[in-house]
Amino acid sequence: MDVARVERQAQGKGYPETRSRRSFPAWGWVGLALIAVMWPLNWLLEGTRTVWLFFPLWLGYCLAMDGLAYLRKGTSLAARSPRAYVGLFLISVPVWWLFELINLRTQNWSYLGVEEFTPLAFFLFSSVCFSVVVPAVFASAEFFSSFDFIRRAKPWLVIRTDRKTTLAFFLAGWVMLALLLAWPVYFYPFVWIAVFFITEPVNVWLGNRSLGEATNQGDWRPVLSLFCGALLTGFFWEMWNFYSYPKWVYQVPGVGFFKIFEMPLLGYGGYLPFALELFSIYHLWLGLTGQKRSTYVEI
Length: 299
Known about the structure:
- The protein is mainly alpha-helical.
- It has one domain (about 5-290).
- The protein contains 15 helices and four strands.
- The strands form two sheets. A two-stranded antiparallel ribbon has the order 1-2. Strands 3-4 form a two-stranded antiparallel sheet.
- A hairpin with a 2-residue loop joins strand 3 (about 260) and strand 4.
């Protein structure tokens, strides 16, 4: 018997023999049930139903995608550490409020129906809704990381984590942030990459986990997993938003054509670097809380 092969199967690397003996977990079924109930209610009910239904619908997505990742890999975010899994929801709230703060300047999206709520109520309801952003993207990324087209991706462009490169990234990030704040009409796309350019070098300097550890070897599989995870999540965000109320709409200068739901086609490109920002911010937070080398997110 090939002992190494058996061990690889036990670790859930996506081998068919392993998946055939693995069942879809209970929390995944709960997620699918939540989607089956909350999706039609969110689209068919009248009034401000989304404020109540957004979180359970997206909790369903998070649990279902986590269950699919577990089915394919034999491990998942929720399975490895329920406590850390809850932490993803908690860190997600201030992370998305950061982008809401930047949007006060760029004005790239706004919310229809916000007038139905007091400022405090809108803040509280929004915070609950924002809590699903990070776990949704990370669960989707873990799901995609199990597929052969990513696992067998060949080494590509090498981006070093030496002092010169990281300093260049760091300075570029602040320049991009300054440009988008000074001239948001022209430089608003930088909102989806500037934060990564700032936080990624900090992670390298502090010894936190970073994507540079992979790209330093030409390994782009973690990046590809995040890209795919964010695109899938983004598709569902935009689709479920379309018939929701309250809902968000976009005002994107120069690219507001060929809309898929409310999002212009070119706007979906913003989801790619946004996923890198989430990964970098999350691991910066882990490093600041004493978990520098955490490999909780397996991509």
